[in-house]
Design a protein that fits this description.
Elements: H1 6-20, H2 30-52, H3 68-88, H4 93-113
Helix pairs in contact: 1-3, 2-3
């Protein structure tokens, strides 16, 4: 049995979940896209706060413990919303993969050059 492409499978699963709760990204106009990107960004901000709370960041509070299991759940929650944003923007798993590869190359070039100055054109091809 062939293993399914994992990123494509995540995108398929997220599309099904979003449609089940009434969010259909395929037919959104610009106003709906704007609304849902903002909704997902806000949700991701909350998930980031929950991830932060999994780590003992309060240096004055001695009772805190690192909750690695919860941190993992919050990372997965972030993926749900990040994939949803990609889908709102019309990106497939393949689109995300290709953009990631290109942006990773840009990031390596930035590191090789010392990245002392922002080049606003180095990511326009992505």
């Amino acid at each position: 049995m062939q293993t399914p492409d994992q990123l494509r499978e995540l995108f398929r699963m997220q599309k099904a979940l979003n449609e089940r709760i009434g969010v259909v990204t395929d037919t959104m106009d610009e106003a709906e896209k704007t609304k849902w990107v903002l909704n997902y960004c806000r949700a991701m901000s909350q998930e980031m706060a929950e991830l932060t709370d999994s780590v003992p960041w309060k240096w004055w509070a001695k009772y805190q413990k690192f909750d690695e299991q919860n941190a993992r759940v919050e990372v997965v929650d972030l993926f749900h919303f990040l994939i949803s944003i990609a889908q709102v923007l019309g990106m497939s798993a393949d689109d995300v993969f290709q953009a990631y590869v290109k942006k990773n190359e840009v990031n390596f070039k930035r590191q090789e050059s010392g990245y002392t100055q922002k080049d606003h054109d180095d990511s326009k091809h992505i």
